[in-house]
Amino acid sequence: MRNLNTYNNSSDGADNEERRMKPEIFLPEDYRPAENEPFMNERQLEYFRRKLVVWKEEILKGSQETLVELSNSSRNIPDIADRASEETDRALELRTRDRQRKLIAKIDAALRRIESGEFGYCEVTGERISLKRLDARPIATMTLQAQEAHERNERVHRDD
Predict the structure, then answer these.
(1) 3 state SS of 121
(2) 4-117, superfamily in CATH?
(3) Can you give the pLDDT at residue 8?
(4) Which terminus of the chain is more exposed, N or C, with fewer CB under 10 A?
């Protein structure tokens, strides 16, 4: 993952104007949110915002590379087994990119929660989501306990 301090404030129009008015928050390269500082203070929010933006940029870059590869691989392969293997690889790559497209939507939603002040709080209970969980999965919207309960409930209703 790229250095979080390399993020520049080039987002989309209205957000970009609003960010220009805010002073840039300096984060040391080794900064990690800590439990002994105020929860979701400016530094923590900036850390997670940068982490999300870098993640999104990496996904978009990978998508561009996939498009180039797919457009270059449209060749006629005479061997049936090789052709089947290439089609399987292509289908897998497209499925992966579709999952990443959905992930981008979750990243965008997390960025909106940062802007609205809702980031870091469980959408079910309103409790704080642990910093360790957010660092591992910054798109998390529920505490670990709420997520586990949600998944148990899904399993119960899926079997119906």
Answers:
(1) strand
(2) DksA, coiled-coil domain (1.20.120.910)
(3) 42
(4) C
